Amino acid sequence: MERVRDLASKKAIVMFTKSSCCMCHSIKSLFYELGASPAVHELDKESRGKEMEWALRGMGCNPSVPAVFIGGQLVGSATDVLSSHVDGTLKQRLIDANAIWF
Amino acid sequence: MEDNSPRTDSSTDADTEDKMSNQLQGIGASDGSDKSRDQKTLRRLAQNREAARKSRLRKKAYVQQLESSRMKLTQLEQELQRARQQGIFISSSGDQSQSIGGNGALAFDVEYARWLEEHNKRINELRGAVNSHAGDGELRIIVDGVVSQHDDIFRIKGDAAKADVFHILSGMWKTPAERCFLWLGGFRSSELLKLLINQLEPLTEQQLLAINNLQQSSQQAEDALSQGMEALQQSLAETLAGSLAPTGSSGNVANYMGQMAMAMGKLGTLEGFIRQADNLRQQTLQQMHRILTTRQSARALLAISDYFSRLRALSSLWLARPRE
């Protein structure tokens, strides 16, 4: 839990993924398209990956990946990210977190 | 001036002209060079009237033809729907369809056909309300009804995708022309918005900006999902290719099984992509309704429905086309 929160606060956009997860690839693509560079942590490559996955589930992430944090705050899974992009709130959050400029 | 010529399109101009001059000779003014000029003018006017009348008759006949073709088309459409519900194989020779694809697929096809019928009823109700200049309150109720009925089909699709993701992905539950535009088991919201923007005028500056932003956002989201799908395809291909090992080595069977298991896992994620795609469609439509006024929403829903109706009509025409 701590490790997740700790990592999540280090950069403007933090994503927890798994190397085999293609939906994670989609969300990553979206951020790149918007001109942002998310910090990506692959849980299957992390030493405490299982713990972290468990912590993410505990925070309500289902599925556990992709899990996106902006400005240290949990945005959610792919559904949450795409929905907030459509209603315009994603961009504002990114700007507020200084992840993008416009 | 009374027109005594028979009301048929086959009367020639010569006949008419003769009749006209006969009538003209019965009228009026006694003498002078004016008489012939008057006569010419009157004759010309009479001919114009006659031409206009014939033109109106032709137009009426043409419109009647169109109406009956339209009814025929609707009938054909309905027949196709009914036949498809019964799982009858309907396609042209080049169309490799498989309408009997297991319980899940057929059940969904039936549900979808039922939903479509209900949807068309609501759309007609909406059209009636718009055309009769109903008040905003009444319009709102009908619009909300259409929107929530839309939500129904997304839910039904979601369940169907769990049961048979490949059926939804194949688009076989849609008509051929709709399948041209298939993206992740449905339509592209970004394309739909592009088509709508012209139909939605007049929009305020703010609305125009918001709709354009929405169009851009939905397109970006679609592209992101497409990228993920490509990654999935590539990963699946690599996994399967990886199991092509030379015969004779002992670890092969375990390898093969392992890689099949991995491939199975990847196929399992397809349903997630369909779910995200449908969610995107739903969210985009909802956001659109937030931006538009009730009346504009009503017109948008009518325009969308008409567009898909035409696609389906095109499919009917295509399937019924004469072939060697």
Which band does the percent of strand residues of chain A land in?
A: 15-25%
Structural class of chain B: mainly alpha
CA-atom Rg of chain A in angstroms: 12 Å
Q: Can you tell me the residue ranges of chain A where pLDDT is under 50 for at least 5 consecutive residues?
A: none
What percent of residues of chain A adopt helix (DSSP H or I)?
40-55%
- Uncertain ranges of chain B: 1-11, 91-101
Spatial strand sequence of the major β-sheet of chain A: 2-1-3-4
- Taken as a percent bin, the fraction of beta residues of chain B is under 5%
What order do the SSEs of chain A take from the amino end to the carboxyl end, as H and E?
HEHEHEEHH
Oligomer: heterodimer
Helix content of chain B: over 70%
In round numbers, the mean pLDDT of chain A is 94
Structure annotation, total helices of chain A: 5
Helical region count of chain B?
11
**Structural class designation of chain A:** alpha+beta
Q: Radius of gyration of chain B from the CA trace? A: 31 Å
Concise structural overview:
The complex is a heterodimer of chains A (102) and B (324). By secondary structure, chain A is an alpha+beta fold.
Notes on the protein architecture:
The complex is a heterodimer of chains A (102) and B (324). Chain A is α+β, with helices and mostly antiparallel strands and 102 residues long. Chain A is built from 5 helices and 4 strands. Helices cover 47% and strands 17% of the residues of chain A. In chain A, strand 3 and strand 4 (73-76) form a beta hairpin. Chain B has 11 helices and no strands. Chain B is elongated, with a radius of gyration of 31 Å. The longest helix of chain B is centred in the N-terminal third of the chain and has 53 residues, at 33-85. Helices cover 77% and strands 0% of the residues of chain B.
Name the features:
heterodimer; A: 102 residues; alpha+beta; four-stranded mixed beta sheet; globular; B: 324 residues; mainly alpha; 11 helices; 77% helix; 0% strand; elongated; disordered N terminus
